[in-house]
Amino acid sequence: MPDEFKIGSLCIENTTVLAPMAGITDMPFRRLVKETGCGLVCSEMISANGLMYGSKKTERYLCHTDVEKPISVQIFGKDPAIMADAAAFVASRGADIIDINFGCSVKKVLRNGYGAALMQDPKGAEALLSAVRKVIDIPLTIKIRTGWDPSGEDAMSISRIAENCGVDAICVHPRTAPQLFRGTADWSLIAAIKRQASIPVIGNGDIALADDAMRMQGETGCDAVMIGRAALSNPWIFSGVIALMADRPTTDIAPADRQAAIWRYIDDCVNCYGEQRACRMLRSRLGWLVKGLPHATRFRERAKLIGDRDEAKGIVGDYFEELVACTEDCSSLAIRN
After folding, report:
1. Where do the CATH 3.20.20.70 domains begin and end in the chain?
2. So what CATH class is 255-333?
3. Interatomic CA distance for residues 113 and 76, integer angstroms
4. pLDDT attached to residue 1
5. Residues of the chain with CATH 1.10.1200
6. CA dihedral over 132, 136, 141, 143, signed as positive or negative
7. Which of 59, 93, 286, 310 has CA atoms 20 to 30 A from the CA of 212?
8. Cα 137 to the chain's mean position, in Å?
9. 225 or 337, which is more confident
10. CA 49, CA 41: separation in Å to the nearest integer?
11. d(CA 175, CA 145)
């Protein structure tokens, strides 16, 4: 894979992308994966209607820091005028890329005609993309699924429409809308869209390890890889992919480095949400970051009782201190990228 790639005029320093994940890819998590080397981070999906109706809660999703840049902000909706106004607003708030969600297949999203429902309405999709393209001068991308049946015809059609409307890159998650996250992603569809498209194609789906990212690129020819669920328990997967891109071996993440990163994540959560709310969130979130390590279940039980920042850091510190003390070979505590 190349060391970098471009979306429109924007140069991304490497070909790794964090997937947008509702309730997960907030500012603290984006900062964490940026620290591990991720080339492009993406916001949670944000309601265009919420932005245009003046929801302060929705608008807070746009908050980001310079550390995260370049940042892609994903919006969802179906009305071309509202989507265009929302895209212009998001661009004015410092987004580097606008991404439009064509892939979410959660029932409440589909009921309103958003997300993957757009893939059943080619004319509506064209009107939406044309309207957004006219009002922004930053790169525009879309994230799609296979569509509503395994043939991939929906994805191929929407990809052609998107390119004709001036979209700068397409991300393909090759599962059908009814599949949600079940079954296996059909990487051959990524390859088919890559052969058809003259704009960058980003592959997504079933990347659990750095090796999987390289295998996806080799099998599909995609320009970049997007990683989602695997990053929850292993944000360091991005550094592993980058190492393999450069033909270097992956390196283990030492317990002390993992602990320090989690402490910074705690600080970022508190700074972002305030101590009380952050600690409620951390009671579950910290469990993601020790998945696969010894005694993770015991750690998660202790984390459920977190009441303040110092307590959260203390529980993390105690956990890693105990692991190192009781493990003769500390390399067994390292997490493979």
Report:
1. 5-245
2. mainly alpha
3. 10
4. 54
5. 255-333
6. negative
7. 286
8. 23
9. 225
10. 23
11. 6
Catalytic positions, please? 104
Look at the block and give the residue holding tokens 């890693």.
320
Q: What would the two tokens of residue 290 be?
A: 């020790």
Q: What is the pLDDT of residues 41-50, one digit of tens each?
A: 999 999 999 9
**Single-letter code of the amino acid located at 186:** D
- pTM of the entire structure? 0.93
**Bridge-partner residues for 170, per DSSP?**
142, 201
Whether pLDDT at 21 is above 90: yes
Q: Which of 88-102, 151-165, 171-185 comes out lowest in average pLDDT? A: 171-185
Kindly indicate the confidence band of residue 335, based on its pLDDT and cuts at 50, 70 and 90: very low
Average pLDDT taken over every residue of the chain: 93
Q: Which residues contact 326 (CB under 8 A, 6 or more apart)?
A: none
| pLDDT, mean of residues 68-73 | 97
Name the residue among 187, 174, 178, 184 with its Cα closest to residue 143. Answer: 174
Q: Which CATH class is domain 5-245?
A: alpha beta
CA distance 10 to 2: 15
Instruction: Tokens 């991300």: give the residue.
Output: 171
